């Protein structure tokens, strides 16, 4: 089954965390969390929070490696980097240490983004990756 996922034949028709348990039973908890990716943003349902703090991103130069997987370009920060980039504030409950940037893209002008706005996907998107405190397969709530 995973070889079909890898070449995209299976995954293109099954999208979103509600279906991930069908792809791999170990991922069955993905459809139970409320803060799961991908997300469909609905601007008309968003609320303004006047008490929201500013998002703070450390400004350090970091060294890393760029690789192309065929469906995304990935920049990975070297583990030996002297300073790390931390992201805090805003709606975040934790300090996140930047680890990777993924540029997801499609073969054509649509379908490259994982996330959508009002159900509309985009040609590409940039996703940042951080080490997770939830790597033990617990549901993030």
From TrEMBL:
Superkingdom of source: Eukaryota
Boundaries of every Alpha-carbonic anhydrase domain copy: 7-141
InterPro entries cross-referenced by the UniProt entry: CA_dom, CA_dom_sf, Carbonic_anhydrase_a-class
One BP term from GO: one-carbon metabolic process
GO molecular function annotations of the record: carbonate dehydratase activity; zinc ion binding
Family: Belongs to the alpha-carbonic anhydrase family.
Protein's name in the database: Alpha-carbonic anhydrase domain-containing protein
Organism this protein belongs to: Diploptera punctata (Pacific beetle cockroach)
Lineage: Eukaryota, Metazoa, Ecdysozoa, Arthropoda, Hexapoda
């Amino acid at each position: 089954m995973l070889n079909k996922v890898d070449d995209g034949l299976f995954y293109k028709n099954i999208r979103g965390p509600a279906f991930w348990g069908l792809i791999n039973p170990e991922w069955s908890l993905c459809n139970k969390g409320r803060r799961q990716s991908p997300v469909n943003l609905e601007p008309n349902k968003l609320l303004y929070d006047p008490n929201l703090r500013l998002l703070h991103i450390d400004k350090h130069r970091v060294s890393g490696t760029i690789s192309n997987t065929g469906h995304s370009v990935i920049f990975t920060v070297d583990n030996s980097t002297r300073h790390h980039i931390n992201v805090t504030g805003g709606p975040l409950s934790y300090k996140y240490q930047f680890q990777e940037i993924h540029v997801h893209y499609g073969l054509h002008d649509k379908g490259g983004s994982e996330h959508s706005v009002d159900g509309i996907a985009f040609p590409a998107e940039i996703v940042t990756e951080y080490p997770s405190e939830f790597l033990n397969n617990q549901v993030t709530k």
